[in-house]
Amino acid sequence: MSSEPTPPPGPLIAPLSALARAVYLGLALLFLVLGIVGAFLPVLPTTPFILLSAWAAARSSPRLLGWLENHTAFGPMIRDWRRGGVVSRKAKWMSSGFMAASGAWLLWSSHPRWAAWAAIACMGCVAVWLWQRPESFPDEDQNSGRG
C-alpha cells in the first residue's frame, strides 16, 4: 500500500467529440485572427479576443494553447487574467484611447447616428467594466510597500 494519500476525485468531464474539438479549434483560430487584426484596427479589441482564443484552444488544441501562453505579447495577458482577472494600467489606457478615437470616428463618418451612439454606448460599458478590473495582484500590492 502506498503511504501517499490519493487526491480527491475531480469532476468527471466527458471527452469532447471530434466535431466539438473542431468547432472549438475553429473558434480559437477565429478569435486569434480577430485579436491580431484588433492590434492594428482601433475598432476591434485585442485582449478579449486573445482571451477567448485561449479559452477555446484549451478545449481543442493543447499545441495552440501552449503557443498562446508562451507568446511574448499574448502570454502575459492570458496568465494575468487567469491568475486574478488583472488588466494592466497601460492596457486600460490604450483600450480607452482607442475606444474614444473609434467613437469620434464613428460620429464623424457614420450616416445613421443611432448606430454610432449604440456603438459608443457599448464601448462605454466596456470601459466602465475594464477600469473596475484590478491592475496588479494583491500579493504584489503588499510587497510593493516593503523595500
Counting helices, strands and paired strands, the structural category is: mainly alpha
Which shape, going by the Cα principal axes?
globular
Task: Please report which band the strand proportion falls in: under 5%, 5-15%, 15-25%, 25-35%, 35-45% or over 45%.
Answer: under 5%
Largest sheet: none
Terminal-residue CA separation: 49 Å
Task: Please give the domain count.
Answer: 2
pLDDT < 50 runs, ≥5 residues: none
By DSSP, the count of extended strands is 0
H/E element string? HHHHHHH
Number of helices: 7
- Helix content, binned percent: 55-70%
Task: Please state the average pLDDT score.
Answer: 84
What's the alpha carbon Rg, rounded to whole Å? 20 Å
What does this structure look like?
There is one protein chain. With 147 residues, the protein is mostly helical. It folds into 2 domains: 18-85, no CATH class; 86-137. 68% of the residues lie in helices and 0% in strands. The protein is built from 7 helices and no strands. The chain has helices spanning 18-38, 47-58, 62-70, 74-84, 89-109, 113-131, 138-144. The protein is globular, with a radius of gyration of 20 Å. The chain starts with 17 loop residues before the first helix and ends with a helix.
Note the main attributes of this structure.
globular, single chain, 147 residues, 7 helices
Structure in a nutshell:
With 147 residues, the chain is mostly helical. The protein has helices at residues 18-38, 47-58, 62-70, 74-84, 89-109, 113-131, 138-144.
